Amino acid sequence: MELTRSEMEIMDVLWGAGVPLSRADLLARSEEKSWKDSSVHILLNGLLQKGAIREAGFVKRSKTYGRTFLPTLTREEYFATTIFCHRYKPQIVGLFAALLQREDITGEDLVQIEKLVAQRKEK
User: Fold this and answer.
1) Which helix (H) or strand (E) holds 119?
2) What is the pLDDT of residues 19-63, one digit of tens each?
């Protein structure tokens, strides 16, 4: 699944919120956006069709009810899946080697990665 820039902006708000958001909540929390307020329903429907978000319930707004939405995957899960959905997939070992070269990886990150690798080996 690949998301457009506008869809990513909505997903970023949903990932940051950590709670279900309505259309109005999304508009209120979207400070820097490349889309018009009137097109948010189109973007939400596109995200629903792609399986990136799901309906989480309803909230009452004055006299009407509106749907609330939650992401179906984390930010990290999304980026991990996008890496491997292209025609030219990287080799996993080479990808990890490149990621480990980054200057912003901390010692704590490495400890957590080692734990994840050990858990995976046990499976």
Assistant:
1) helix 107-122
2) 999 888 888 888 888 878 788 889 999 999 999 999 988 887 777
Q: Indicate whether 85 and 106 sit together in one domain.
A: yes
Contact 45, 6 (CB under 8 A): no
40 and 88, same domain (yes or no): no
Q: Containing domain of residue 27, as a range?
A: 5-71
pLDDT reported for residue 1: 81
Residue at 97: amino acid letter? A
How many domains does the chain divide into? 2
Chain segment 58-99, per-residue pLDDT in tens: 887 777 778 899 999 999 999 888 887 777 778 888 888 988
Instruction: Note every long-range contact of 104-112, with CB atoms under 8 Å and residues 24 or more positions apart, other chains counting.
Output: none
| Sequence-distant (≥ 6) Cβ neighbours of residue 21 within 8 angstroms | 13, 14, 29, 68, 69
| Longest CA pairwise span in the chain (Å) | 56
